[in-house]
Amino acid sequence: MAHSLELFVSVLEKNIDNRGKTPPLSPTGYPLIEVKHIQEDRLYPVFEDTKYVDQETWDTWFRAHLKPGDILFSTVGSVARSCMVPEKPKFCIAQNVLGFRVNRAKADPRFLYYAINDSFFQHEVHGRTIETVQKSIKVHDLKTCRIPLPPLAEQKAIAAMLGALDDKIELNRRMNATLEAMARALFQSWFVDFDPVRAKLDGRPPAALDPATAALFPDSFQDSEAGHIPKGWTIQPVGEIVDCVGGGTPSTVEPKYWEGGTHHWTTPKDFSSLQAPVLLDTDRKLTDAGIAKISSGLLPAGTLLLSSRAPVGYLAIAAMPVAINQGFIALKCNERASNFFMLNWCQTNMAEIESRATGTTFAEISKQNFRPIRVVLPSKELVAAFTARVAPLYAQITANLHQSRTLATLRDTLLPKLLSGELAVQQH
């Protein structure tokens, strides 16, 4: 049974905006959520690389503050992205973001979030956008958009079904963040802070290490160009430890390189929405002829990819064979320095990597500038012990990502069918 169409504005209690201009900023305080913090396939905003406002601005600048269950909506640039406001929201919104407060007598907030993300409403919005410097939609035009609106009980049932899928995706994301943090903490302890070496130097057994692993660490330090490092470890340029190669882009107007392509080919754009440092898929594929046009060819699964421009610093391990464009340095790792070791080394040394980037239009680090960066390198056996410790963590991260992709596909398949009434949902 088809659902009736209603004006979007008819289900809103109010909309919350930020007075159309940027508030006074502060070094610390309440995060200011901008369009970039509303990311596709993320139920809640991302609190990374935020600006802040102080208490006085929080108290006096804004017309209203957000509550749990409100919906954030982007109106400029990446128009029509949305996310839910989580419990205890202690943040405010920038000028190109709207907050929608739902009239709960007419609509379920989570249902409305899904309705906003459905292709029908997205088409309504994008048909009303204007483009000057960048795409945007005005509030009065947004209010004329329509949404399918089943009875409230059915809305809640739809929201519960789709919400269960999104809740699992969100749980997987949080689990992956924890697993990645565990791997980074181990790298920091072993190879940056040298905790096991310091323990042995003090006559203590290294914490949480079995005797065989503890025996791989020396019990003293030596002087080096990088200061005190564990005895017997070496310092070598990264380019002498792993093979660092670049990529390219076959002519995009030559069909034989692209049409029917089956080989993964990646650009830094593929990395912008990654939720963990693992690459599972690419937006574009190449043919055999396309692969032949790239000097580095098809790189093996397990290759570590570092974006070298636009921006510098995206990192991921390819879960499948992949070719790369010119925006990467690919690290072909080995048993002397595994991909998991080098991933964590790059993350730890990102400030130095970024500092070696040059360029006026945009920053770029060349292979020539990357290869000389020095690596404090432990024994091959210790690298192997670290790899064995963290490999199960990254395997679980990868499994969670695969599951989340499957759940997202199911959700995106169900969404239009449920909203249109083509598929009925059981109500309780």
CATH architectural name of the domain at 5-149: Alpha-Beta Complex
Write the CATH fold name of the domain at 5-149: Adenine-n6-DNA-methyltransferase TaqI, Chain A, domain 2
CATH class of the domain at 5-149: Alpha Beta
| Overall 3D form | globular
- The fraction of residues assigned to DSSP E strands is 15-25%
Can you identify the CATH superfamily of the domain at 5-149?
DNA methylase specificity domains
Which parts are unreliable, with pLDDT below 50 for 5 consecutive residues or more? none
End-to-end separation in angstroms reads 18 Å
What is the arithmetic mean of pLDDT? 94
- Trace the largest sheet across and list its strands: 15-22-19-20-17
Major sheet size, sense and barrel closure: 5 strands, mixed
Q: Which radius of gyration do the C-alpha atoms yield?
A: 25 Å
Structural class by sheet pairing and helices: alpha+beta
Q: What is the tally of beta strands?
A: 23
Instruction: Report the helical percentage.
Output: 25-40%
Distinct helical segment count: 14
Care to describe what's here?
The protein is of the alpha+beta class. Among the domains are: 5-149, Adenine-n6-DNA-methyltransferase TaqI, Chain A, domain 2 (Alpha-Beta Complex), CATH 3.90.220.20; 234-377, Adenine-n6-DNA-methyltransferase TaqI, Chain A, domain 2 (Alpha-Beta Complex). The chain is built from 14 helices and 23 strands. The protein has helices spanning 55-60, 109-117, 119-126, 139-142, 152-192, 195-201, 211-214, 238-241, 268-271, 288-292, 339-348, 350-355, 367-370, 380-420; strands at residues 5-7, 12-16, 30-33, 51-53, 71-74, 82-84, 92-93, 97-102, 130-131, 135-136, 146-148, 221-222, 229-230, 234-237, 243-245, 263-266, 278-279, 284-286, 304-308, 312-318, 323-324, 328-332, 374-377. It is globular, with a radius of gyration of 25 Å. The protein starts with a strand and ends in an 8-residue tail after the last helix.
